[in-house]
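Researcher: Predict the fold of CD209 antigen-like protein E.
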Amino acid sequence: MAGCCEAAEKPKRNSKLPSETVVLLVLCVLLAAALIIFIRHSLRTANQSIQTLREENEALWKNLSGWEEHGGNCYYFDTDELNWTESRSFCRDVGGDLVKIDSREEQEFLVRRLRDKMISIEDWFWIGLTDLETEGSWLWVDRSPLDKSFWINGEPNNVGNEDCVALTVDRADGDLQTWNDFPCRHVARFICEKPPGSAQSSCV
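Model: Structure tokens for CD209 antigen-like protein E follow.
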């Protein structure tokens, strides 16, 4: 019989995926989408937190208390102990620099204030004077050369590679001779100076 002699037809392959596979694929897609959303949200939150911290930090520096006005400039006497480079970085971060002493009157002001600020007789305060570039050639932080000086008797002597300058009061020879050279890695307190922040001579 023809029907019996004909070769049996091969069964057709089912092109449809099993329902379990479809469900698994859907779950994977949903999980991937959720993960992407979570990562984006986390990054957005992190960026917002960083921005908030940056703004708070800037506000802190701008409103740093303790600035004193004198002679058209603002001064900050910091009692933390840092090396000369770290001290200068701090002053620059708050909009100024280590103090540059331009006159006898300014030196007198600093000496008067240090008598109140010093915690012990061993306190020294960095100023913005150094001969790091060329030994014996003293420059202020604005790169202007030293004109008027107030060295302690016998200083500077460069004992132990002393290239940065600090001042004190109790060990001064006379009223105003207060400067001494130190190794820049030495830690000391420091004095920042900056111009007023507004026409009203605000020192905040």
